[in-house]
Request: fold
Amino acid sequence: MRCPKCGCLDDKVNETRMTKEGDAIRRRRECADCEYRYTTRETISPTELMVVKRDDSREEFSAIKLRDGLRQACWKRTVSERDLDCIVAEVVEKLSSLEKREVASRTIGDLAMRALRKVDQVAYVRFASIYHRFEDIDEFISEVNSLSDER
Ligand SMILES: [Zn+2]
Reply:
């Protein structure tokens, strides 16, 4: 990202968060040269990416839905809202970098698990053992919820 103050192309990201509305990712950046701080905002257009479900049906990708699903799946663990932001931000970034119009729901689940591993090892280990039995993030979330209900 080009520094708006000095034009330097080198920067570091200090913070990555989802907006409250869940429709964009904000990054606090700092210029590597002059240390000027600025914010960038990335959005993903929902019509740009279709999720292919296991039964071959398709639905528009929704970062909000992914976040809600992860929050449900993580409710027994203390995965903070901030960690959820990081997970969703990373998944959206990876999906954008794939530059595909369609992506399998399984891929989204895998990306989410990889991001979860970074922020919460314990939650990752617990969920990974459950997740790998399923093909689909939705199925995984409902299984985690039913386990939570039994306790
Ligand atoms: Zn600068």
Notes: The chain has a mean pLDDT of 79.
